[in-house]
Fold this protein.
Amino acid sequence: MSGVVSSTVLDIARVAYRDIRPYAPVYADGRVITLDLSDNINLWGAPPAALAAITAGAASVSAYPPLALDDLNAAIAGSQGVTADMIVTGCGSDDVIDSAFRSFGDPGDVVAHPAPSFSMIPVFARMNALVSAPVMLTPELDVDVGAFVRMNAKITYLCSPNNPTGSLFSRAAIEEIAASVDGVVMIDEAYAEFAGVTCADLIARNPRVLVTRTMSKAYGLAGLRLGYAIGDPDVVAEVGKSRGPYKVSSLAARAGTAALTEGRAWVDARVRDAVNSRERLWEALRGMGLAPLPSDANFVLVPVSDALWLSSRLRARGIAVRAFGGLPVIGDALRISVGPWELMERCIAALGEIVERAS
Ligand SMILES: *Cc1c(COP(=O)(O)O)cnc(C)c1O
């Protein structure tokens, strides 16, 4: 039988990767989407100062970006009230999270994370030969402190405000977990701007805390791919090693710097607009007889009886929302991003009609 190849080419792929599906949350059903409320970006757009910086820096793209990214790190540090040696950047906060998993987890180590939470966490764990260990949220949708402390994982991932539930975890719960476990405690604050609070001050007391932030949501730069972490200088240096050089493009660095400095007033104003739209959307959903969860982010999660059916009815009207079937603790739910009120009105009108016809 020598020379007969009985296997397929996929047999050469890493075993743990074989049944991972590429990220594709939105169904490729060919519908034309004219209102996309599925991914929590800034629906007002990007800060004008960032756009101007991209135009002004366009000719710089023939050179590699600076290795040190001093301007960007200084702008981030300034916005956070920390020193620049406490910052590490990456190609989106996804890259920072992935790199941190790799720098603190040896193969086989456990990543404890809430469920439901950010859907990429189990995937990043697996990609880095780590074991993901979901910990159910409490019925109040807070973190289960006892369960995380008992697990004492090498990596504890928390997300506050939590995606997809929308609310902050209680500060006391986060503090107790951080004080009790021996490993690194990552706090994903992708939506912190909309909550107006951060856990970054915990780092001074506990150097194993690493807070991740993104420029993709409030800062309106999702397409540039820019995120960062705040942490103890030794901790962020480890993340930088596993991330590798040149993960932040020169245009992302320029735009990010501008957004955090001259663009900051624009961003703050859009955050206020988003919070305002969020409260009005929440009330409108209640008015339809639905029970939206309280939100500290720029989206609202609404438990429903059949999320896939409802979202397909919305898609038929050109509206995309994120549908979740059978979330732990919650069940089926729709996650609706918040944006300018005219867009919310269109979504509310469509959803109202669909819900009314179904009842
Ligand atoms: C959107 C999101 C991110 C990823 O952001 P990028 O910086 O665009 O990679 C990370 N964490 C959570 C919880 C998110 O919702």
The chain has a mean pLDDT of 95. The chain is about 40% helix and 15% strand. Residues 92-94, 118, 159, 163, 188, 190, 214, 216-217, 222, 227 surround pyridoxal-5'-phosphate (CB under 6 Å).
